[in-house]
DNA sequence: GGGGCAACAAG
DNA sequence: CTTGTTGCCCC
């Protein structure tokens, strides 16, 4: 009988749905923080860039800067 | 003096970072559920479609499926 | 001397950039077609689904649709 | 009669499909250039970063650098 | 409300 | 790691 199988699928689906709801809630919280930041004069777009930069490992940031130099040198850019 | 401003920025950034960590944790949980489903024989890709369909309002879903059928008929996609 | 090396790099980079420009041009064309379709009453989102379905091999598509129906039945998604 | 409508949809779909094929062809060409670059000793990953950097408008790059300074100052990073 | 853009998920 | 999809923000 298929009911057991069906229930297993349903349970898995419902777990996913619950988790996605939680995830959406957090995404909304993040949005709220940016809205609050904007309300006190910060630029949300720039804040996002900062968050991205802070997420990088220091070595990676250093490498990125080195690449920038390499590219400038090899391509003749100031 | 800028310290107050800087702290306010830092606090906002750190709130975002904390929330993003939580969000990532949940995304990982979702991935785990799909992995578990796959391990017992379900097709994760199709499960995702189901989740998407269940997220829609019934009327919207019915309408979408009707349009899809219309287009399939028009293109000879039996 | 590094000039030869630099030029070789520059040439490769420029070839990539030219190709990426072309690619972007075509992506814009695709966008235009969907916009035109929308203007005469078609649903672009569903058209994209059709394009995806037509890309699949008929057998694969049939199988996918069969599984999808099975899951829908199991979840009571009429 | 629906045949005209159907043909219009089919024509639009086929235009999209043709364009997507072209796009894929160019993507393949790009891949080939990177493969060739790798074969003569360049690092494809770094080349991609260079391409990305060159894609930015100089002003944006300058702004990005300013943002980097701002973030370092406000967040106390070296 | 639409179009462009950036994050997210899929392959 | 790259591409396609989706949701968000600005216009």
TrEMBL record, chains A, B, C, D:
Residues 6-76 form the GapR-like DNA-binding domain. GO terms for molecular function: DNA binding. The keyword rRNA processing does not apply. Residues 2-36 form a coiled coil. Pfam families: GapR_DNA-bd. Keywords: Coiled coil. InterPro entries: GapR-like_DNA-bd. NCBIfam families: PRK13694.1. This is DUF2312 domain-containing protein. It comes from Novosphingobium ginsenosidimutans.
């Amino acid at each position: 009988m298929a009911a057991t199988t069906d229930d297993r699928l349903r349970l898995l689906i419902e777990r996913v749905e619950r988790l996605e709801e939680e995830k959406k809630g957090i995404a909304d919280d993040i949005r709220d923080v940016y809205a609050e930041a904007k309300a006190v004069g910060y630029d949300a777009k720039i804040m996002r860039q900062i968050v991205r930069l802070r997420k990088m490992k220091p070595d990676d940031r250093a490498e990125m800067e080195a690449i920038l130099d390499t590219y400038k040198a090899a391509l003749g850019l100031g």
